[in-house]
Amino acid sequence: MGDVPLRRRLEILADAARYDASCASSGAQRRGTREGLGNTTRIGICHSYTPDGRCVSLLKLLLTNHCIYDCQYCVNRVTSDVERASFTAAEVAWLTTEFYRRNYIEGLFLSSGVVRSADHTMEQLVAVARALRTEHQFRGYIHLKAVPGASPEMLAEAGRWADRLSANIELPTATDLARLAPGKTFPVIESAMREIATRREEAVEAQRESRRAPVFAPAGQSTQMIVGATPASDAVILQTAARLYTTHGLRRVYYSAYSPTPHADARLPPEPPPLVREHRLYQGDWLFRSYGFSIDEIVPPEAPQLDLEVDPKLAWALRNRQHFPVDVNRAPREMLLRVPGLGVRNVQRILQARRHRAITLADLARLRCAMERVRPFVLTEDHNPATRALDRVDLRARVTRGVQLDLFAPRVTAT
Amino acid sequence: MSRVVVVGDELARFRRAARWLAHEGLAPEGVDLVDDAPTGGLFGAVMREVPDAPATLSVPRAHVDTIERAACHRDPQRWNVLYRLLWRRAHGEPDVFDVPTDPDVRALSALDAAVRRDLHKMKAFVRFAPHTLDGEETWAAWHGSEHRILRLATPFFVDRFGSMRWWLLTPWDGAVWDRTALTFGPGMTRREAQQTLTRDALDELWKSYYAHIFNPARLHVRAMHREMPRKHWATLPEAALITDLLLQSPARAAAMTPRDRSARSLVPTDRRLPVLRDAARACDVCGRCGVFAWPEASNGEVALAVLLERPEVLPAFEALRARAGLDASEVYVTFAVKHGGARARAAEVAACRPWLDAEFEALRPRVVLAMGVTAGRAVLGPLAGERAMGAVFEQAGGAREAVFATWAPDAGRDDDAVEHLRAAWFRATR
Prior knowledge:
The structure holds 2 protein chains of 2 kinds. Chain A is α/β, with parallel strands linked by helices. Chain A has 2 domains: about 5-220, TIM Barrel (Alpha-Beta Barrel); about 310-400, no CATH class. Helices cover about 40% and strands about 10% of the residues of chain A. Chain A has 15 helices and 10 strands. Chain A has helices spanning about 5-15, 90-100, 120-135, 150-160, 175-180, 185-210, 235-250, 275-290, 295-300, 310-320, 335, 345-355, 360-365, 370-375, 395-400, and strands at about 50, 55, 60, 105-110, 140-145, 165, 220-225, 250-255, 325, 380. Chain A has a 6-stranded parallel β-sheet with strand order 3-4-5-6-7-8. Chain A has a two-stranded antiparallel ribbon with strand order 1-2. Chain A is globular. By secondary structure, chain B is α/β, with parallel strands linked by helices. Chain B has a 5-stranded mixed β-sheet with strand order 4-5-6-7-8, with helices on one face. Chain B has a 5-stranded mixed β-sheet with strand order 10-9-11-13-12, with helices on both faces. At the A-B interface, helix 1, strand 1, strand 2, helix 2 and helix 12 of A face helix 4, helix 5, helix 7, helix 8 and helix 9 of B.
């Protein structure tokens, strides 16, 4: 470790960390002090953007990329010949505070390869967070990886210093995991999630009684699933996500498209999944969390894969035309949320505006709704001839006309 | 011809002007509220100062912040939009602010949204560097904000960097925070800032990080441009790298994926032991250059297989076997790494593991005794460890009934190891 210069190790361990999609720095709030460094705001901040279109909000590093695991999809697996490196706790704390002072970052996202044992590894991560909070009075954002298999005591201390914890579920099914990640199992990963969820509930409860009570991971927990390394369908992926959201109260599930490695074994596909699949999964995830859709509606048994060409809400509307057109002046919020092209914010604006005025097509256009998609599905105060297209077989072509297939990288941002 | 009122760029002056205009009953259609006095041309009456007037207009409480932000926008039409809304609210449309679809309200929220975005980008893109100001070490930054937002932005920087002395500059104004109070002063042009402020050495570390945290295999340049507009690049040290990073991306993406140091692809589908042994002899994926060691004995199923770390441990094991009263033919001994040499590293054990898996698949031992942590890792993965010594893992993978873990033959725990060897043998032959 000693002879490799810090800068080179920073490169190696940033390279190793970039496969964790999360860079969120939102969800916690901590005022600044005159003695300490930094604060944490409810809305995260993206301090830079890289050529892959992703935001840089946190200093995202691995403490070490040495690892005893041999997970087939991971570049840091023990059988991979990547260059290995490690930081000391003091080095990571120094990088974090110096970067923070210059306003490069919101805080730290620290993960690690597993060395010796899960508990030993977790202890190393916790040591960095503890040093930042106590020695450096650091009040910025800290996200720590929760190493599955770490003891409840270690996780408890991690949550005391960190804003967010995340234990990665890695793959959509238990069988996928057994096949590609020898040594990892759903029960072990999920017991870490359960531990975090329980501690969080206790902390929230205690906060209600006394505001002085210690917080526990105030920005909650998240997880990540690799997509496209196994044949699991979008339906299976979203069902697993939904189960994790409901049973462990996760804030976010991140989806990361698998990238193939040369000489990989026959268990892995030779091609990466299209990036747009990742994007559609995020859209399906939003529909579940914020739009009142059930997973069965997003990916019904007859269509277990998300449509890559149109967004999942539009796909649902095309399959369920009997619910349309929706009267924007009368329909309840739940139904407005189901109209293609209407987002949560605009639904809110429509509800507010219609208390005072009747909504016309021009009003929707002024709200910058995606008119191409909205028009056939709504009734407005004025005449809307576009609804006649609802019964036409070419409706799908009409609403997607002029909409370029946007090969979006998912917008994984700090907010 | 409309009456032109010079407001300037302060919300307080707008309030004064609007109060007087409303008091005089001058409708928005007949007035033009501007920042600067017009020059030349034919204009109506130009008023630079308006008289005092009692307040007849009121601002809805819920929209005070919105109006304050919109006032910071550089759009010269902002005062007219605001006056029109306030006038309409006072003249028969008391709810106008609550109608988000109204064209004037839309215009106001567009102004507000632009200023909020500008504020957000300022919080994100300010880059402090050490500087000496009035003989004191000060963290200094110049930021090319689009609107006049410094006063709106300073509370954020005071809260976040309250323990630092800093100097924040924009094209219009500047602010110094001395750890107790803020002092506002003049701003600086971009050119002046370039001559006054210098970057520091830590930028180089930050640039290294930036160059390595992104994935060159999945570029999305449009998204980057949308969120980080070019006009801010000059003050972002990392932005200087972007062109080079884009040029290098294809090559980096190709080189990004590491070589797999695993025998996985070398193991023949024919799982007979002699075939496996011959194939393994030529294997060099892990780069260990030692003596090849794969026991010749047995080509059928075995009851007990003993797994040692490497061939060099064999003599120590033989001694223990004799002490346990077992004959050489009663146990099948094999190794976590098939080539001898120095202590096996985790990467070597993992690389060799497909051979071991194939070997066990051919022999189907009922019980495996793993001696030492390294050997244990080869069959038990992360379950192995000092704490696992003496433990029995039932049905731990493969066709085997149980895996026993014990100390390595050369660990100096002979009594325990012998006892565990006997226990494993009884279990295997029962």
